[in-house]
Specification:
Belongs to the cytochrome P450 family. It comes from Glarea lozoyensis (strain ATCC 20868 / MF5171). Keywords: Heme, Iron, Metal-binding, Monooxygenase, Oxidoreductase. GO terms for molecular function: heme binding; iron ion binding; monooxygenase activity; oxidoreductase activity, acting on paired donors, with incorporation or reduction of molecular oxygen. This is Cytochrome P450. The longest helix has 32 residues. A four-stranded mixed β-sheet has the order 1-2-6-3. Strands 4-5 form a two-stranded antiparallel ribbon. The protein is built from 18 helices and six strands. It starts with a helix and ends in a 26-residue tail after the last helix. Helix 8 runs antiparallel to helix 13. It is mostly helical. It has a single domain, classed as Orthogonal Bundle (Cytochrome p450), CATH 1.10.630. About 6% of the residues have low confidence. Bound molecules: protoporphyrin IX containing FE. The site of protoporphyrin IX containing FE (HEM) has 30 residues, from helix 5, helix 13 and helix 18.
Length: 493
């Protein structure tokens, strides 16, 4: 009898435990989702170009701020509003800070890069390196170099305006090499500029990030070949400037740089659990380059476009600079406080066209990477959870759609319009809009270089506005040629 009673009681206990502890998967629905193909899921529905626009359109079409997609068996969550991105990625950061494997980049030789680390001791170590090196206070130390390089850039653009895009790129390359390694770029033919160009090409396409590690004899997959073809440049980007700094230190040189401080810190710390190895330092330098160069360059390009299309805003900005900066001086950071319109204009550049539109996404499988991963950088949930009454499975890739967030009509009136004064209170003619929040990402993977990036964009914007007029090209009869405006697609837009 006693045995039967024990069985019944155990059964009851198990039932109660199951009822209360079972995953909520069965009881809660998944978030709304567009129609899907069997097995493939949404793979066929995502366009290969600018998927952020499709995600935004679907949000409107299905009347939802969060969308659930599936790529084969991989769940993906799209967040089209700031409120949801903050609620999940900022407030539940511990759950949504993982990354998937970036096989494509690992194949190229990016083995010690913060951007591509999953959550691990290595991730923490590198996050600390970046977090402590680019605080607001530390970035003040980099400003003199940014001003000098911006000055060189505008002089070169004034000499050959048709080369403006290449010169902006040369500026961002020069700033990064200077800050990372204390290397001064001599000109467009500089070896480091060439390596840097190759690195941009290698990373910018990112077309097949999801390729699994395959044996070297597998050479017939074009993107795999592409990744391997760029290995040499990735290796050079890691080794050459690092060796340059080591040699400089050995010869008693004193040029300050990010890499120099890491080497010095490593030499002081010695063998501790947090020890920074040569490979860590090489990886951090190369990561700084890739993360900072294209993003800053693309943002300045968006600024140029905004000025081209909005001549009256350009005039207002130039009038403010003329009032504040003496005509015989190049602007610098001492003028910043007195240039509030420029500050709003820069914020509007970041809002209007964020250059990393899908800041938080991932590469779960070989197939959809081409569509999805080539456009973004991942966050991934480490455990199953629920949100707004929906079930979010473990391992879900979460994409904050910065483009949709910045064009949310409930937050930004007339969101397509480039309007710097929208941030002013209504009493001063504005709309009291909040400054944009998605262009540097969210949560524990938020861009650790945002202070440096913002300053690099700011000084370029002020330098260009102070010295030249951005305007449309004219044809032989002096008539303005309307630009054909479109956005590229890739890790940066
Ligand atoms: C205007 C310039 C820049 C923009 C728009 C930008 C934007 C971003 C975005 C959207 C992310 C992904 C964040 C996420 O996953 O939630 C990111 C990550 C990152 N950025 Fe930036 N960035 C800029 C400049 C810089 C600079 C100057 C540095 C170097 C100090 C830098 C270093 C990094 C690194 C290392 C990561 C990876 C962080 C991680 O995975 O934990 N960025 N950036």
């Amino acid at each position: 009898m006693a045995t039967i009673a024990t069985y019944i009681l155990s059964g009851l206990l198990l039932f109660v435990l199951y009822k209360f502890l079972k995953p909520q998967k069965q009881s809660l629905p998944l978030p709304p989702s567009p129609p899907t193909d069997p097995i493939l899921g949404h793979i066929r529905s995502i366009p290969s170009k600018n998927p952020e626009l499709t995600y935004m359109k679907w949000g409107k079409q299905y009347n939802t701020d969060i969308l659930y997609l599936s790529f084969l068996t991989q769940p993906v969550l799209i967040l089209n509003t700031a409120a949801d991105a903050i609620a999940l990625l900022d407030k539940r950061g511990a759950l949504f800070s993982d990354r998937s494997d970036f096989h494509f980049f690992k194949e190229q030789g990016w083995t010690n890069s913060l951007t591509f680390f999953s959550r691990s001791a290595e991730f923490k170590k590198h996050r600390k390196i970046f977090g402590s090196s680019f605080t607001l206070a530390k970035c003040v130390g980099y400003q003199a170099g940014q001003v000098e390089e911006a000055w060189k850039m505008v002089r070169r653009i004034l000499e050959s305006p048709g080369e403006w895009n290449g010169e902006v790129k040369a500026y961002t390359t020069a700033v990064v090499l200077r800050i990372a390694y204390g290397i001064e770029v001599k000109g467009r033919d500089d070896l480091y500029v060439k390596i840097a160009d190759q690195i941009s090409e290698a990373g910018g396409t990112g077309g097949s990030t999801g390729i699994r590690r395959l044996p070297e004899w597998v050479t017939f997959i074009p993107s795999l070949k592409f990744a391997r073809d760029h290995r040499e440049y990735v290796r050079k980007m890691h080794n050459l400037p690092f060796e340059h700094v080591k040699k400089e230190i050995a010869q008693g040189g004193s040029t300050p740089s990010f890499i120099r401080s890491l080497i010095e810190e490593r030499d002081v710390l010695g063998e501790t659990p947090d020890e920074i190895t040569d490979a860590d330092i090489e990886g951090a330098g190369a990561t700084l380059y890739t993360a900072a160069q294209d993003t800053t360059h693309s943002t300045i390009t968006v600024f140029i476009l905004a000025m081209l299309l909005n001549p009256s805003i350009q005039s207002t900005a130039q009038a403010e600079i003329d009032r504040v900066v003496p005509a015989d001086r190049f602007p610098d950071f001492t003028h910043r406080e007195k240039l509030p319109y420029i500050e709003r204009l820069v914020q509007e550049v970041f809002r209007w066209n964020p250059v990393v539109p899908l800041s938080t996404t991932s590469s779960p499988s070989q197939i959809h990477v081409k569509v999805l991963m080539s456009k973004a950088i991942p966050h991934k949930s480490s455990k199953a959870t629920t949100y707004k009454g929906y079930y979010i499975p473990a391992g879900t890739l979460v994409i904050a759609n910065a483009y949709a967030i910045h064009r949310d009509p409930n937050v930004y009136k007339d969101p397509d319009r480039f309007w710097p004064d929208r941030y002013l209170p209504p009493s001063e003619g504005g709309d009291g809009a909040p400054v944009p929040c998605a262009h540097f990402g969210f949560g524990r993977r938020i861009c650790p270089g945002q202070n440096l990036g913002y300053a690099g964009v700011w000084i370029a914007v002020v330098g260009i506005l102070a010295t030249m007029r951005v305007r449309k090209v004219r044809d032989e009869r002096g008539k303005e040629v309307e630009p054909n405006v479109g956005m590229t697609t890739g890790l940066t837009r």
